[in-house]
Design goal:
Radius of gyration of chain B: 15 Å
Helix content of chain A: 25-40%
Largest interface: A-B, 41 and 41 residues
Structural class of chain A: alpha/beta
CATH class of chain B: Mainly Beta
CATH class of chain A: Alpha Beta
Strand content of chain A: 15-25%
Number of helices of chain A: 13
Strand content of chain B: 35-45%
Order of helices and strands of chain A: EHEHEHEEHHHHEEEHEHEHHHHEE
Order of helices and strands of chain B: EHEEEEEEEE
Largest sheet of chain B: 5 strands, antiparallel
CATH architecture of chain A: 3-Layer(aba) Sandwich
Shape of chain B: globular
CATH topology of chain B: OB fold (Dihydrolipoamide Acetyltransferase, E2P)
Mean pLDDT of chain B: 96
Low-confidence stretches of chain B: none
Distance between the termini of chain A: 12 Å
Number of strands of chain B: 9
Helix content of chain B: under 10%
CATH topology of chain A: Peroxisomal Thiolase, Chain A, domain 1
Oligomer: heterodimer
Structural class of chain B: mainly beta
Chain lengths: 382, 130
């Protein structure tokens, strides 16, 4: 294992989740930031690196900085979709390594559920590459993931039942998480009987639409020495993207997590076999299957068998999405930050009924766009 | 009802849409490396070549992936279920389209298809090769 200790996650928090009206997205971010900094034993005045994406306006880190009175030395509003926050953690590591900041704050917030702001497509004039993709009535993002699923099924014989196994296992984890939005058990038959959204994806193959936000605080090794919580070290990170629109995806069954994961594992000096608990962005069931393959947890085309027999459920051989994921816990539009929050809590041993016993190494992976971008973190505890 | 999505050509893509208006599917071929390129670009993503010539495509290809849409964007709700597909042309490029003249349940990956330009706005739909 990479012995270098550069940067650690020192505080994590969710905001209120589910339906939060009349709270605003900025309020969610501010409340989560306050809680995460408090958990880390820090204050707003300690923050000198600021990261956000997808929130208010054209420059989310500027909006959060203004609202919370932060004047950062390092700022990053990079938006590569729902993976952005995992990418931010990697950038925070680099900034801390070069001495550009000591305390990095990453935030996200959304009220997409209470505002009913989610749409499946845009109207009017389509420019740029969208003039070739935006004119066919493909519901986004679900339709793009359905296209990838159809290809995976064709190439490897993956079945709707196998996709459903993942949804069922994820719901079982959610039933152990008091904060999860959907906690009632479901069966494979329930998933298959749920209505089609975009074949081959059923309603229960799709993530939730909720409100919610979160914050993550990352500090230098020096700062990490005397914090209230045990440090969760960033051992490796990676990022990549391969396309913007689904018709330009080089291989519909290979996500850019192939590249981000390889980089993160190489930096950590670890392999997939070393990971005790895995948190993957599960926008759709197929997202998880493709990501498992891209990260090397199983071979090409083997993910359907890999998730079958409830292998990823509580008590199974491969603890996956232990908070209940975007499928059952919360999904406020850009879920990536929650993969890091849960991975951190698992490594600290704070997860109660859903705790993976003795977890020492965790992996968090965000996927953005339409399987377009990926960012991977390998995390470990002392 | 909002204004249903329509393509807005630009200087580089205009010949493609001119072709569609004439009933012809045109794609680019890079003068530098000889590879076909889609969507149209000013610079070849394979060899950085700056000269890309327009060629008439065969209009034939195969279904690379498809989805039957049941939950549609607002302007398309009256049309469900319909099939959106990625078609890989014989020239090797992939494009998004909708399949017509076929029951959704009869569509399969790798099925041979051909271009069928139609509609308002006029777009390059595809249909099964008879």
């Amino acid at each position: 294992m990479n012995p270098e200790r550069v940067a650690a996650i020192a505080g994590v928090a969710e905001s209120d989740l589910g339906e939060v009206a009349p709270k605003t997205a900025m309020q969610l971010q501010a409340e989560a930031a306050r809680e995460a900094l408090t958990e880390a034993g820090l204050t707003l005045g300690d923050v000198d690196g600021l990261f956000s994406a997808g929130g208010d306006g054209f420059a989310p880190s500027m909006a959060v900085g203004e609202y919370l009175g932060i004047r950062p030395r390092y700022t990053d509003s990079t938006n590569i979709g729902g993976s952005s926050f995992v990418l931010h953690a990697g950038h925070a590591y680099q900034a801390i390594q070069t001495g550009t900041c000591d305390v990095a704050l990453i935030t996200y917030g959304s009220t997409q559920r209470s505002q009913a702001s989610r749409t499946l497509g845009r109207a009017g004039g389509m420019r740029g590459s969208a003039q070739f993709e935006g004119v066919w009535g493909l519901p986004l993002p679900v339709g793009a993931y359905a296209l990838a699923a159809s290809r995976h099924m064709h190439e490897y014989g993956t079945t709707s039942e196998q996709l459903a196994e993942l949804a069922v296992a994820t719901r079982r984890w959610a039933s152990l998480n008091p904060k999860a939005f959907m906690r009632d058990p479901i069966t494979v038959d329930d998933v298959l009987a749920s209505r089609w959204i975009a074949e081959p994806l059923h309603l229960l193959d799709c993530c939730l639409v909720t409100d919610g936000g979160g914050a993550v605080v990352i500090v230098s090794a020096e700062r990490a020495r005397d914090l209230p919580k045990p440090p969760v070290w960033i051992l490796g990170h990676g990022e990549s993207h391969t396309h913007l629109g689904i018709s330009s995806m080089p291989d519909l069954t290979t996500t850019p997590a192939e590249h981000s994961g390889r980089a993160a594992f190489a930096m950590a000096g670890l392999t997939p076999a070393d990971v005790d608990v895995t948190e993957l962005y599960d926008s759709f069931t197929i997202t998880v299957l493709l990501t498992l393959e891209a990260l090397g947890f199983c071979g090409r085309g083997e993910s359907g068998a890999f998730v079958s027999g409830q292998r990823t459920a509580p008590g199974g051989e491969f603890p996956l999405n232990t908070n209940g994921g975007g499928l059952s816990y919360c999904h406020p539009g850009m879920y990536g930050i929650f993969t890091m929050i849960e991975a951190t809590r698992q490594l600290r041993g704070e997860c109660g009924e859903r705790q993976v016993p003795g977890a020492r190494v965790a992996l968090a992976n965000g996927t953005g766009g339409v399987l377009s971008s990926a960012a991977t973190l390998v995390l470990g505890r002392d | 009802m909002t204004e249903r999505a329509y393509p807005v050509p630009d200087a580089v893509t205009q010949p493609f849409w001119d072709g569609v208006a004439e009933g012809v599917l045109r794609i680019q071929r890079c003068d530098g490396c000889g590879r076909h390129v889609f969507y149209p670009r000013a610079v070849c993503p394979f060899c950085m070549g700056a000269v890309l010539s327009w060629v008439e495509a065969s209009g034939r290809g195969r279904v690379h992936a498809f989805t039957v849409v049941h939950r549609a964007p607002a302007d398309y709700r009256d049309e469900v279920p319909y099939v959106v597909a990625l078609v890989e042309l014989d020239e090797g490029v992939r494009l998004m389209t909708r399949l017509v003249d076929v029951e959704p349940s009869a569509v399969a990956v790798d099925q041979p298809v051909e271009v069928a330009i139609q509609g308002e706005p006029r777009l390059p739909y595809f249909r099964p090769v008879p």
